[in-house]
Specification:
Number of strands: 0
Radius of gyration: 16 Å
Oligomer: single chain
CATH architecture: Up-down Bundle
Number of helices: 4
Largest sheet: none
Helix content: over 70%
Number of domains: 1
Strand content: under 5%
CATH superfamily: Hemerythrin-like
Shape: elongated
Distance between the termini: 30 Å
CATH class: Mainly Alpha
Amino acid sequence: MAIAQWQDEYSTGHREIDQQHLALFAIVNTIHAAALEQCPDRPWLQQQLQDFAAQAEAHFAMEEDLMRAYNYPNYEIHCNTHLALTAKVRQLLLKLDTQTPCTPDDITQVLADWMIHHIRGEDQQMIRFLRSQNPALAQHC
């Protein structure tokens, strides 16, 4: 069973953003599924988390480019939420590096909760603004 279940309400309507969100959900669900089957080893968890971080950072960069291009008024607030997730991922990786207790469930719960909250809130708000500034943007989505 997936921990991060995609819902229609998460769709921004922007094809590339939604594909990137789905890829992030897939990594979280891969970690969760492995945790249900057996306790994955730390190197595997670290690799999965590093993959998540790399994809998230590329996704954030794309969103931030869009926000700058349209002078999004909540740019700084939105970017701070990106920094918050990046910090959480670094913290989880540090726990894995230092053998601090950190279960796959801890990891997936943090990531799933953050993504769902962020997509439903900040990302939806950003897309509404971008479309209000450029109705043609909807044609590219």
